[in-house]
Amino acid sequence: MTPAEELSAFLAVAWPAFTQRWPDPTTWDAKLDWQRTMQQERWAAPTWPEEYGGRGLGILEMLACDEVLGTYGVPVLPGVLGLKNVGPTLIAYGTEEQRAHLPRILQAEEIWCQGFSEPGAGSDLASLRTRADLDGDVFVVNGQKTWTSSGMHATHMELLCRTDADAPKHRGISALEVDMTSPGIEVRPIRMITGEAEFAEVFFTDVRVPVTNLVGPLHGGWGVATSTLGHERAGVAALAGRLEEEVREIIAAHQAPALDPLLADELIERFVECRVGGFLGDEMLTRLAAGDPPGPEQSVIKLMWSEASQHVSSTRTSLAGLGGLDDGFHAGASREYLVARQTTIVAGTTQIVKNLIAERILGLPRD
Amino acid sequence: VTDLLTSAAERQEFRLSVRRFLADRSTEADVRRLADDDLGYDPDVWKQLGSELGLLGLLVPEDQGGQGLTPVELVVALEETGRALLCAPLLSTAVLTPLALQGISSPLLAAVADGSTLVAVALETTGITHRDGTLTGTATNVLDAHLADHLIVLVGTSVYDVRTTDASLTTRKTLDLAIALSTVELTASPAVLLGQIDVARLQSLAALAAAAHLVGIGAATLDLAVAYAKTREQFGKPIGAYQGVKHLVAEMHARLESSRAAVMAAAVVAVTRPDELAEHASITKAWCSTAMVRNAEDCVQVMGGIGFTWEHPAHLYLRRAKLYEQLFGDARAHRRQLASQLGLA
Predict the structure, then answer these.
(1) Which of A88, A93, B18, B289 is an S-S bond match for A216, by CB 3.0 to 4.6 Å?
(2) pLDDT by residue (tens digit) across B162-202?
(3) Contact at 8 Å (CB) between A261 and B336?
(4) pTM of the model
(5) Which helix (DSSP H) or strand (DSSP E) does residue B295 occupy?
(6) Does B237 touch chain A (CB under 8 A)?
């Protein structure tokens, strides 16, 4: 049995039982329960090595599993940042003591967030100013983080902070693991464009963090963060495939009555751009499967996927029309339209991505 | 699932051998010379395309004197001919002809493979009728008909062979200075029925072939733009350091990579999952037509004034791209087909 088939067999039993247990599966407690249910068969982080509670799956096997998850419409796991980003980083850089977090990440006993962006450090992340000053055997942290996903629920943070103010900006940064219940931490929700609060800003005032919480080398945090972001970016190829699936569903829902020809053509344009994005994603996955490291070509997929996402969300509002927005098949279309604004901003704005393509792939001079 | 005949490494080697050959025998000077030449191609180079590279018989079955290769190898070669703006009746004689004669045994194929005969294929035919071994009617936009010894004429799914001397041709130059299209009038012209073919497959592969050629143009124009952006200085630094230029060039790269991925995906589908070819070919031609013309246009833009001159090759690429954008269905035509395949029209 392939991993995807095993997962399918597992979900066939576990998912109906879960939905019976939780009439509203979108609540936080329900999501925590779902992650623990998944981990009973080591499905919370199946790409982690088996010795750490995963299944050691390769990226292609994981992609097949993601497709299975998509067909069941299961919720995103509440500990997703710990599972996808922090966990792999701790496996790569963590001390034995730090790796003790891994089972708790799997069981959703710990929810991790990443303290990267700051009010003054967005695209230029390396200019971050939250500082950690060594005082005996603790770092004393002061500063502010923003746009922290899962920040409102997090028990722990992977924090990027400046430990050497005199070094060049990339070489004075360290990564710390921080207990979010430490005195001096204040978390406030950020209300985003939709009115919902998925992000937080986090304030640090003389927060004391033991030196044993340093992840990776002192002043070597940039490399640690880049590794973490690398895990995040590998997911872009899969996103391209999911968008293509969404367009197919929209097309299937509009077979009759016949669409206005201009609207039909717009929808076919979406189909074409999403399919082409999917071809690029497939190509990248094939290279990753052959053992090539993730490279700058992911930037092209990010660029295309983000723009296609916005186009699809926009076409969808046109298809729904004034009267049909957020009704029936197009329920959630307005929210999707608003949320899609973030695709060209998160994980490298479109403008930064174009700089990367021009400078790192094509060799144009830096400005 | 059918396996591919060649490995990625073998295709890369093939690509480089075609590129080396064309770097020598399809230079900018050659392209400009042939644009002014009535024939529009170099007969010596034509023979060598067959004898040195095997391109003329690439799609011709081995038992009829060819290489017996597939669309996967074809798109590699056509990307290179596009990159070099090769002026030769390759698409008509060596691509459309063996595709139109798929599964048919004919001495024409051996004559195509050895370079002794030129053949054009009439894909756009309306109301051509067959009677007593003759055809009557009109075919439009027939590529390279004025050069061809034979015309392959499609009537429904039937494939006929007509001698060009038995037809009346009206030939027009196109935006591309070396390429001409003809209107072919058949008036009780003697015609030999060669067999029946899958016309949809022929049309899909014709569109895919044009898309592959477009990818080569998109690659060459990106190379030109990048080289210029690195060296041309204004306000004391290379123009490629300015984001306005940098972002144009980055978009060209994204369009090229996506177009190339689409062409290869469609070519692989043509071999391994032929049932899905029509959808893939239409997606690919719809995308590449628009994207690669944009690359040729943006190349002119990055060049600035020099790109608007006759002496600079940017317009040679733009002309070819603009012609191929429409050849075998433009983006709109292929989207219309997709709409109908997907039940939206």
Answers:
(1) A93
(2) 999 999 999 999 999 999 999 999 999 999 999 999 999 99
(3) no
(4) 0.92
(5) helix B277-303
(6) yes
